[in-house]
Design a protein that fits this description.
CATH architecture of the largest domain: 2-Layer Sandwich
Structural class: alpha+beta
Radius of gyration: 21 Å
Order of helices and strands: EEHHEEEEEEHEHEEEEEEHEEH
Largest sheet: 9 strands, mixed
Helix content: 10-25%
Length: 302
């Protein structure tokens, strides 16, 4: 059993994350819910439990998770850009980016492993090559690194907010302004741990939105991410009473049809020579009025 003393007010899961870096935050949250963590001798079953200075935290040994099956699986991939250092994939709807504890089926990673090239080590053994991710039902562009050097460069650009990531989406409702910015911190949903919500104590998140077209009670928008939090676009738009059409998680509960959110444009500096790389992918066939999405409308605004 490992034991520490809290030296400042802090959430229990964050406290453990800094002291047990070999475990993911989700793994630590599972251990907390499973009764493996005690605070001052009492079982703590909430990841958000607030520690006070002087409290004693004890953790029973956390069982190792089952390793992910990373056998290559040949799946069709739409590669829109590729060289010796990286590739950009247009991810289809329904494809999970990498394996998780809750999803063990074929993913983008399995398909990448079946291709005849190397992949970077990634941020974890089950995420080779993955620089950033998209939700399962979001379509569009993803950067994949072939070398560790390329991965480090691209990840640093994303961290410094130097990668331009632009999306298109249909939303329910009609915005009052043609252009607006949603600046609202995001954190875990208070009741549903797999979701996110606008929270005052959350991490800073900023989304820029421009209206492209309005049809009936739906609006086609293009979105520029300044930060890249989990579910950021979906949560931000829903918080403004404009949920993404087809969003069964953050919509009204009556959403039908596929999620109308597509990562259409990426611009970044090449990790090898510093030249700018710009890639565009039109929305898939099941995107409403996809002919209305023009590259210049998505990219040529600030």
């Amino acid at each position: 059993m490992q034991t520490w003393l809290a030296d400042e007010p802090e959430r229990l899961d964050r406290f453990l994350a800094t002291r047990m870096p070999d475990h993911t935050r989700s793994r630590l949250a599972t251990a907390i819910r499973g009764g493996l963590v005690r605070v001052d001798g009492e079982a703590a079953n909430k990841a958000g439990f607030m520690l006070k200075p002087g409290m004693r935290v004890q953790v029973e040994p956390i069982p190792a998770s089952e390793p992910h099956n990373l056998e290559p699986v040949e799946l069709p991939l739409d590669v829109v850009y590729e060289d010796d250092w990286l590739l950009v994939v247009d991810k289809p709807r329904g494809m999970v980016t990498h394996p998780t504890q809750s999803f063990q089926g074929p993913t983008l990673v399995h398909a990448l492993l079946a291709r005849p090239h190397t992949l970077s080590s990634g941020q974890a053994p089950y995420r080779p090559g993955v620089v950033h991710r998209l939700d399962r039902d979001t379509t569009g562009l993803l950067i994949v690194a072939k070398t560790d050097g390329a991965h480090a460069s691209l990840a640093a650009q994303i961290s410094r907010r130097e990668v331009s990531r632009r999306y298109v989406a249909w939303v329910e409702g009609i915005p009052e302004q043609e252009r607006f910015t949603i600046d609202a911190p995001l954190g875990p949903h208070p009741a549903r741990r797999t979701l996110r919500a606008v929270r005052a104590e959350g991490k800073a998140a900023r989304t820029h939105v421009r209206v492209l077209s309005t049809h009936g009670q739906r609006t086609l928008v293009t979105v520029r991410l300044e930060t890249g939090r989990t579910h950021q676009i979906r949560v931000h738009l829903a918080s403004c009473r404009m949920p993404v059409t087809g969003d069964k998680l953050y919509g009204s509960g009556e959403s039908s049809g596929p999620l109308q959110l597509h990562a259409a444009s990426l611009r970044f500096l090449h990790p090898e020579d510093g030249r700018q790389v710009g890639v565009f992918a039109p929305p898939p066939a099941d995107f409403i009025r996809r002919e209305l999405v023009k590259r210049e409308d998505v990219e040529d605004w600030t």
